[in-house]
Design brief:
- This protein has a single domain, classed as Four Helix Bundle (Hemerythrin (Met), subunit A) (Up-down Bundle).
- The protein has six helices and two strands; from the N terminus they run βααααβαα.
- It has a two-stranded antiparallel ribbon with strand order 1-2.
- Helix 2 packs antiparallel against helix 3 and helix 3 runs antiparallel to helix 4.
- It is elongated.
- Pfam families: Hemerythrin.
- This is Hemerythrin HHE cation binding domain protein.
- InterPro entries: Hemerythrin-like.
């Protein structure tokens, strides 16, 4: 068990948030085109699953939230409970996008419209979630504890979940779509 500086972790998470917001903007742009590229849509759905959920939420759940809870910050009835619950909603919406993408690729004529609807729900959900973390939870945690205990480092979680690969995928798509 190591001690991790809360402001370091929240700083990294805010950087992740900036990239996630760029990906949400890109997902909206790609899906609003008259003829969306299915491969690019899949890359953005996978970004939601692998970068947003596995990597970013992994840092929050394995380090920041767990460390705050172990340091006496309440889970039940508190903002961490809400954030973890919202992670589950985001995970479900990303899975729905994955399934609808598969159906679309297999010729289901209604699947693309449904995918667009679920993507809009995902975009709105994650954008609101980020706003709550950046403007409520992170400042609260930063003022409560300087350090929290953690069994993994930010860098370990990023490495395990291919952080650099997914940022490169995002940057490639941003260039392609001029975002």
């Amino acid at each position: 068990m190591v001690k991790v500086r809360v402001k370091y972790v929240t700083g990294v998470l805010r950087e992740h948030h900036d990239k996630i917001l760029e990906a949400l903007q890109l997902l909206e742009k790609v899906l609003s085109s008259p003829s969306p590229d299915p491969d690019d849509v899949l890359k953005l759905v996978q970004f939601a699953q692998r970068f947003v959920d596995a990597c970013h939420h992994g840092v929050e759940e394995y380090i920041l939230f767990q460390g705050a809870n172990r340091s006496g910050f309440p889970f039940t009835g508190g903002p961490i409970y809400v954030m973890v619950s919202e992670h589950g909603v985001g995970r479900y919406l990303a899975r729905m996008m994955e399934e609808l993408h598969r159906a679309w690729r297999e010729g289901d004529r209604n699947a693309l419209a449904e995918l667009v609807d679920y993507a809009k729900l995902y975009i709105e959900h994650i954008a609101q979630h980020i706003d709550k973390e950046n403007n409520v939870l992170f400042p609260m945690l930063e003022s409560t504890a300087a350090e929290v205990p953690a069994s993994k480092s930010v860098e370990e979680i990023e490495r395990e979940n291919e952080h650099d690969k997914w940022i490169a995928v995002l940057e490639e798509l941003k260039k392609k779509y001029g975002v």
